[in-house]
Design brief:
The complex is a heterodimer of chains A (about 270) and B (about 190).
Chain A lengths: L1 H12 L15 E2 L13 H12 L12 H6 L4 E4 L11 E5 L2 E4 L1 H20 L4 E4 L6 H10 L3 E3 L11 H5 L4 E2 L2 E4 L11 H8 L4 E5 L10 E4 L5 H31 L8
Parallel strand pairs in A: 5-6, 5-8, 8-9, 9-10
Antiparallel strand pairs in A: 1-7, 2-4, 3-4
Helix pairs in contact in A: 4-8, 5-8
Chain B lengths: L1 H13 L6 H7 L21 H17 L11 H7 L1 H5 L6 E10 L2 E5 L6 E4 L12 E8 L3 E2 L8 E2 L4 E7 L26
Antiparallel strand pairs in B: 1-2, 1-4, 2-3, 4-7, 5-6
Classes of the chains: A alpha/beta (about 270), B alpha+beta (about 190).
Amino acid sequence: MAARALTKGICGLRQSRAVSMGYFCGGFHYGTAASIKSPQPQADDSEKILNQPLEKPDFFRLSELFSVKDLFNARVHLGHKKGCRHRQMEPYLYGCRLDQDIIDLDQTVELLQQALNFTAHVAYRGGIILFVSRRRQFGHLVETTAKDCGEYAHTRYWQGGLLTNAPVQYGPGVRLPDLIIFLSTLNNVFQQHVGIRDAAKMNIPTVGVVDSNCNPSLVVYPVPGNDDTPVAMELYCRLFKMTINRAKEKRRQMELLQGMFPVSTENS
Amino acid sequence: MAALCKVVSRLRWGLRFSPRRTVRGSFCSDSSGASGSDQPAAARPRSGFAAAFDLQSELRREAAGSSGSPSGQEESFASLLRRSPLIQMGPAKDKVVIGRIFHVVQDDLYIDFGGKFHCVCRRPADGEKLQRGGRVRLRLQDLELTARFLGASTDTTLLEAEAVLLGPLDVREPQSKDPADRPPEPAAVKSEVF
């Protein structure tokens, strides 16, 4: 009992412990030096809240949010011309029609499902999600999406040390995002966004919508799809917003249920 | 036996309009040859035109009967793509489509016609009534303006399509579905370039 209270107290402090994503205690990314920490034994109710979503493959039932037809109507399958194609996007392409690449929506459905599932789990565990897009046409849309789901967005110029030099630029003990969602992985000069490389350096998982001219290699959960048409961008924003809201709702529900029916501890 | 049947089928083709049905029935070796002439026409295995007609009418019946069920949930991406107006249109050069103006900047009209990109056209001299939300007719030139410049490894893209503005959509064409439901607009392509 005393040991459990002590561990709870230690986790309550949460000072400068950057651990990998899977652990409950202090599972945040900090700007200071990382130190891997072994998982502490936790109380059963909080463990149950965290472990229950992991038991089912689609706990948040995200596959009912979209279908191939929805993606098709939103013109997600349209890619750029053949000359703009990135070599590493070739596995995700269905083919090329009159010089225009067509993205394979069957693969997109699966990858989008995985990306949304991961986002939901991050949001369920109270992670910080950062939406990034350097497309000026959709900057306002991305910012309103982030505001609507209570997360963060960065649609302006990306300063070089934003992630890699955060403690110097923003003060010590800054908490970095736990997931970065790129709604467009290119910047305005058609180069890969710096944030992808920096997130990989800082061990931050990324979800990215990759068009046929993007490089999907560093993105952890690439979603091959159109990122130039407003209809498609609105679809992505709506899906991410619904996912995050659903996950947060679920977390609130689970905590309420635990509060009403506290689980008796087995090893007291 | 197989060679005999093949000969028989060739004979059937030749004797399609022959009134001597009894001859055909007796040559058939695998079916009950004795009662071949007594079988009614429907039970006899159809061949040639009759078989094709049966098959086509069955398909048509199936398509008409189950037109509600492949409502998109079961339709595969390949069939959706094959039937989409963008693919059915073919090369975009000189095709007439209908677009919708979604943004106006003084004299420039940003028009979305259902492709990946929008096109930007200058307002014509008599185009005072072309405002945001208006529908116009366009003659497409290119779906995406790209070019490979010297020394570059990939094409440079302008993220725009190119089209010539023909004028506002004056006559409301009777459309089968509500345009809001139908995703891309090249569905209402005029037939002048086909």
